[in-house]
């Protein structure tokens, strides 16, 4: 049994004062940011001792990626696109996402107009602006994310039917197959950049450690990785948004991605597809639009079952893109057939059973039945 000592805020403050005497450069840092960093460290150790996380990693000053939080006293100038941070002052920023909804602007945000410039300040009543987090990526780009009070009212979950529900099967050759018969090609951004990444990595390994040339080479490598990541995110945002807008409900299969990555022959292709990130985007977008996502169990034989006659083709392998059902002579595209089966599974075991779904996410799992027939259970995905 490991005992956990809770450190008081006063003790944390004493620790910070001691550190300032040891490291004078800390006196130039915003005191609230230091307190927040100390709280984060304390929370990390608490989680470690409770078995909820790994041992806290050291935060090295030389690391390219870092972040810090500014809990209070941040201001935003909407006219000049600037943000004010304590100690640092006003910083020019590029606002690429709207900070607030127009209907909440006048009622929830306190503004000050100075020299025809609109400055948004923290409203002590609504506390709309809360914490500003400054982070630097490995590629050397700085981002500021602002935690605000969630004033947006999400729409009520819409009812759906067989005609407004689609099944989605994600894969490697085809990123996503839709039950409507559409195949969305996998762009394979990592595979397209792999040669350049290897070349940049080789250049890094040939440079002298701690040299300026090595830092430049590392920065170029990080920028290329960032480019691949941005391409994946942009592609997945477009696909997920299109699926949610065009349909009332989306059924998708859950996959054991960690287990698949252990297969060294598939690891790179699976990582390049980033299915987990895609499902995460679907999860929160169904809340935005009042839609529903249905997740079926990973052990359902969606690819091996004929959606026409139900014949189970046990000899199907990963190399087979198409197969012919000997029972009904129907030629199947492997991925489209799987997407149709995923949709039918959701329909047969949710809609036809008379179960009313109001949650944004539902997980469908198969359970064994004493009578020998399959039964199903429904659970929340959150």
UniProtKB/TrEMBL annotation:
Residues 275-342 form the Cas12f1-like TNB domain. GO terms for biological process: DNA recombination; transposition. GO terms for molecular function: DNA binding. Keywords: DNA recombination, DNA-binding, Transposition. The keyword Metal-binding does not apply. It comes from the Archaea. It holds the Pfam family OrfB_IS605. InterPro entries: Cas12f1-like_TNB, Transposase. Residues 157-263 form the Probable transposase IS891/IS1136/IS1341 domain. In the C-terminal section; belongs to the transposase 35 family. This is Mobile element protein.
């Amino acid at each position: 049994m490991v005992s956990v000592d809770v450190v008081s805020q006063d003790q944390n403050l004493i620790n910070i004062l001691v550190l300032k005497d040891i490291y004078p450069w800390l006196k130039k840092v915003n005191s609230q940011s230091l307190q927040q960093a100390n709280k984060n460290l304390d929370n990390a150790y608490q989680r470690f001792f409770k078995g909820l996380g790994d041992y806290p990693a050291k935060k090295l000053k030389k690391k390219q990626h870092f972040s810090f939080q500014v809990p209070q006293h941040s201001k935003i100038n909407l006219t000049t696109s600037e943000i004010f941070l304590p100690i640092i002052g006003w910083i020019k920023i590029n606002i690429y996402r709207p900070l607030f909804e127009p209907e909440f602007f006048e009622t929830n945000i306190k503004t000050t107009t100075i020299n025809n410039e609109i400055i948004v300040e923290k409203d002590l009543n609504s506390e709309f602006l809360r914490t500003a987090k400054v982070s630097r990526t490995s590629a050397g780009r700085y981002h500021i994310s602002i935690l605000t009070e969630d004033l947006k009212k999400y729409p009520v979950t819409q009812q759906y039917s067989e005609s407004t529900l689609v099944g989605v099967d994600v894969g490697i050759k085809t990123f996503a197959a839709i039950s409507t018969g559409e195949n969305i090609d996998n762009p394979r951004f990592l595979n397209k950049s792999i040669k350049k990444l290897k070349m940049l990595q080789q250049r890094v390994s040939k440079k002298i450690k701690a040299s300026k040339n090595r830092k430049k080479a590392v920065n170029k490598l990080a920028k290329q990785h960032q480019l691949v990541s941005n391409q994946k995110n942009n592609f997945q945002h477009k696909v997920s948004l299109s699926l949610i807008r065009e349909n009332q409900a989306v059924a998708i299969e859950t996959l054991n991605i960690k287990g698949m990555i252990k297969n060294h022959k598939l690891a790179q292709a699976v990582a390049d597809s980033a299915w987990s990130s895609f499902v995460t985007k679907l999860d929160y977008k169904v809340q935005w639009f009042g839609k529903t996502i249905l997740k079926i169990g990973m052990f359902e034989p969606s690819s091996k079952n004929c959606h026409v006659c139900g014949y189970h083709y046990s000899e199907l392998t990963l190399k087979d893109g198409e197969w012919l059902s000997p029972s009904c002579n129907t030629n199947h595209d492997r991925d489209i057939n799987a997407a149709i089966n995923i949709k039918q599974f959701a329909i047969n075991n949710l809609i036809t059973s008379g179960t009313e779904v109001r949650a944004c996410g539902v997980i469908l799992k198969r359970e064994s039945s004493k009578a020998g027939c399959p039964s199903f259970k429904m659970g929340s995905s959150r």
